[in-house]
Amino acid sequence: MRTVLRSVLTDRPATEPSALPRRAPLSAHHPDPVLDVVVPVHNEENDLEPCVRRLHAHLGETFPYAFRITIADNASTDATPRIAARLAAELPGTDWIRLAEKGRGRALHTAWSRSRAPVLAYLDVDLSTDLAALLPLVAPLISGHSDIAIGTRLARGSRVVRGPKREIISRCYNGLLRGTLAVGFSDAQCGFKAVRRDVAERLLPLVEDREWFFDTELLVIAERAGLRIHEVPVDWVDDPDSRVHILSTALADLRGMARIGGALACGRLPLSALRRSGGDLAGELPAGLARQVVRFAAVGAASTLCYLLLYTVLRPGTGAQAANAIALLASAIGNTAANRRLTFGVRGRGGALRQHLKGLAAFLIGLALTSGSLALLHHTAPGAGRPVELMALVVANLAATLLRFLLFRAWVFPARRTTGSSAA
């Protein structure tokens, strides 16, 4: 057993490393453990032993390679450490580590960072997910097909037993992720995931969260970099003894979404270091119209909200036309920057000035439409109140948004491209 007082690999590299090599299948005669399954625990004296023994028996019967099970005890105060030590002594290929601080993300970050197995996985100690999905989960990573694999409870073929409260919360959370960060994976929270070690070595230094948002942050960064994420429908039965505090976790998740969204929009993540070389996709966003429309709409909703808030604040002191111009200019600059990276997948600073100037040209068209709508409203209904003004501006902004999307797609960002490394 090793006691770990702090996570390793927490500092970002001073210089951005080269791109990941092309994926390759693992040898059928790999001498060392191919798979390291981490079981993060905190005060799980009742569930730990049956979970690990069942997992060990399942892997021994069904997994064709050598494996390791790592119990990651993060600051338990009950009998969990004693049980973990006994299991590690009794079961071949079983290890355990103890951390001085709580946090599922911290446990996974630490255990994965110290492991030398080429495929790293984890599952929740309650074994809510049927273990029959474990081999299908890791097989695409062993074969070299995918970089990350996740279990999903929200795909066709999944069989899920849980109460309506947990179902609604899960679907709302994943819907919020799709609406705000435009993710493509279906289930960020299922405690059943695996990753290739070469990918984890690049991803872990970029993931800041050490609690429940760890999974989501890792997946968002990986997807944005163009890594391949494989989804496996799972059979899942809710654990009625779940100790997740829904309100505090939800607030932490919202803060995490805002943080990672800001980092992506500002280009603070070195995504090029996660891209595959030798023929794999370059990690850009797909150029498909449907996916671009979804991303553009998400960015547009956020920028419209900012625009309306600015207009409402500025209107009493500057008048309607000046407030409209200032609010639209500020939101347009942010809108162009966000769409450049999130919708059209343009990386680096190359061509940024030219694209922003073209974005300002699109802004002038939007200004003409919204200013014209205000002028027409004041001419036809001089006594119209603020709610009517805002409604007119919303309608004009919708028209301007549609036109701006067409201009962005055909003129500002006419084709998917790589413009250099992401800014660190």
Task: Describe this entry's structure for a reader.
With 424 residues, the chain is of the alpha/beta class. It contains twelve helices and ten strands. The protein has helices at 48-62, 80-90, 104-114, 134-142, 164-181, 197-203, 214-224, 246-266, 289-318, 320-343, 352-380, 386-412, and strands spanning 2-4, 35-41, 67-74, 94-99, 119-123, 148-152, 159-161, 192-196, 229-233, 235-237. The strands form two sheets. It has an eight-stranded mixed sheet, with helices on both faces. Helix 1 links the parallel strand 2 and strand 3. It is elongated. The two termini are 37 Å apart. The model is unreliable at 2-16, 281-287 and 416-424 (pLDDT under 50).
How would you sum up this structure in a few lines?
This protein is an alpha/beta fold.
